[in-house]
Amino acid sequence: MGNKSPIQTPKDDEPKTFLDKLVVKVSHFLSLFFLFTVIISFYEVVMRYVFNAPTTWVHETASFVGGSLFIVGGIYAFATNKHVRVVLIYDSVSPQTRKYLNIVHHIFGLAFSGMLAYAAYQLSHEAWFTPWGDLRLETSGSVLNAPYPALLKGLIFLCLCILVAQFILHLIHEITHLRKRK
C-alpha cells in the first residue's frame, strides 16, 4: 500500500535492545507496587478515620514507593520509545532524516544523562557514606526515620546509569541501522 504515515507503528514501541527488554520486564513486575501503595493508603484511611489510630509509616512509605516507581518510569519510557520528543519536527521529516535525528538525540541524551549520573553519584555517595567513609544511610528525620532518602538517591543514580547504557546501546543500534531502507 505504500502509505508512509508519520504515525508510529506498534513496532516503534517494542524494546530495541536486550537492556530495554529487561527494563520492560522488571518494570512490569515493579508496577505491582502501585497496588501496594493503594493497599497501605487504604489501611491508613481505615486506621485514621475508623479506629482513630493513624499510622506513622504509611505516608512516608507510600511516597517513597511512588517516587521510586516514578524514577523507574523514566527508563521504562525510553525503553518503549514513549519518551518526550518534539513531534512537530520529527513527524514532518522523512524516515531517513528521522534516523539522523535519532542519532543526534542519542548523542545529546547520552551527554546529558552522563552528567546527571555523575551528579547523582555525588548526591548518593553523600547520602550513603559519612565524610570519613563509613556506611551510614541518610534518613528522613521523621518519627519513622527510615533510610528512604538514601535509597531514593541510590535508585536515581542506578536508573541514570541504566539510562546511559540505554543511550549507548540505542546509539549503536541507530548507527548500525542507518543505511537500511524501510
TrEMBL record:
Primary localisation category: membrane
Gene Ontology MF, one: transmembrane transporter activity
Lipid bilayer topology: Multi-pass membrane protein
TM regions (residue ranges): 29-51, 57-79, 100-121, 150-172
Claim: Cell inner membrane is one of the keywords in the record: yes
Domain Tripartite ATP-independent periplasmic transporters DctQ component: 38-163
NADP found in the keyword field: no
GO terms for cellular component: plasma membrane
Keywords: Cell inner membrane, Cell membrane, Membrane, Transmembrane, Transmembrane helix, Transport
Cellular compartments annotated: Cell inner membrane
InterPro entries xrefs: DctQ, TRAP_DctQ
Any Pfam family matching the protein: DctQ
Role according to the record: Part of the tripartite ATP-independent periplasmic (TRAP) transport system.
UniProt subunit comment: The complex comprises the extracytoplasmic solute receptor protein and the two transmembrane proteins.
Family: Belongs to the TRAP transporter small permease family.
Protein name, as recorded: TRAP transporter small permease protein
Species of the source: Vibrio gelatinilyticus
